[in-house]
Amino acid sequence: MKRIGIMTSGGDAPGMNVAIRAVARKALSAGLEAYGINYGFAGLVAGDIHEFKATDLDDMVSQGGTMLYSARYPEFAQEESQLKGIEQLKKFGIDALVVIGGDGSYHGALRLTEHGYNAIGLPGTIDNDIPFTDFTIGFDTALNTAVDAIDKIRDTAKSHQRVFAVQVMGRKAADIALWAGVASGADAIIAPGFDYDVEAIANKLKKNRANGKDYGIIVIAEGDANSDAAPEFVEKLKQYGDFDARATVIGHVQRGGVPSAKDRVLASKMGAYAVELLLEGKGGLAIGILDNKVQAHNMLDLFDAKHQADDSLFQLNEDLSF
Ligand code: ATP
């Protein structure tokens, strides 16, 4: 093996640049060449590929976003597109790849492995929704952004005795909402997989008010990208009492920003490990971290598995918020 290709694919996440740097630097220090593929599988098919020099990666350890850009390219599910991608790999002499993205991107990586080009997947998504890993690259940064925003909203909620329903990202996953809810001391968390009762939340807020806490914070997961989850909740809440309630959708700010130290270390560990696996001639594997140990799982097993959020956080928040 002489040349490794690197791409980011699917939704972007803070820490992707750190992962790119880790893969490229580890490859260079192992005497390999590293090539960046822009725009995910779309760029692979188009041949939008360039060689990395060590200096290209200088400040990537602290940069948000992805210097390789990201894209969705559903056409790559077609064999015809995959063969075009293979032609480009041949043309650029790339022998193996690291694909940084979500589980959709892993499908593309597996197709390349099946065509004889070993590919390893790194979990790059703020949603933390990938099986066989406790954390994905970008989750910690997005979580901290969300908590920082909620802390600020708390200030204004207190000043005006308001209830704020704060909507966080995560798509179908509950992780950002659960972690952000506990970390910001939310009065309630509404997240996929957890039943809730608007009237019970309204009663809790009224009880808080009677006890002297005259503002409230409800953290709401977007739940399958419903951009109106928080406004819809506010309308329902108002039916159960005289609340000065507002909705705030934190939005895409959660996808940007300087990666946290934890995400940087995670991305560095995972990126370097991916190169080690490729050097061993392995492909079709997805990297994860379980109990603080970086490890790899077969992508086929991963597709059959389901991500499990830390359910205990929901009850913990119930126990601590009154
Ligand atoms: P996120 O979780 O942020 O959405 P993702 O990687 O799951 O990231 P997708 O849009 O599902 O995002 O997939 C990213 C890209 O991976 C697709 O645009 C496509 O290029 C490729 N891809 C997805 N599914 C397949 C598939 N079945 N076969 C080949 N390639 C695929």
Automatic annotation (TrEMBL):
Coiled coil: none
Family annotation (InterPro entries): ATP_PFK, ATP_PFK_prok-type, PFKA_ATP_prok, Phosphofructokinase_CS, Phosphofructokinase_dom, PKF_sf
Binding site for Mg(2+): D103
Keywords, comma-separated and alphabetical: Allosteric enzyme, ATP-binding, Cytoplasm, Glycolysis, Kinase, Magnesium, Metal-binding, Nucleotide-binding, Transferase
Recorded catalytic activity of this chain's protein: beta-D-fructose 6-phosphate + ATP = beta-D-fructose 1,6-bisphosphate + ADP + H(+)
Family assignment from sequence similarity: Belongs to the phosphofructokinase type A (PFKA) family. ATP-dependent PFK group I subfamily. Prokaryotic clade 'B1' sub-subfamily.
Protein name in UniProt: ATP-dependent 6-phosphofructokinase
The organism of origin for this protein: Pediococcus stilesii
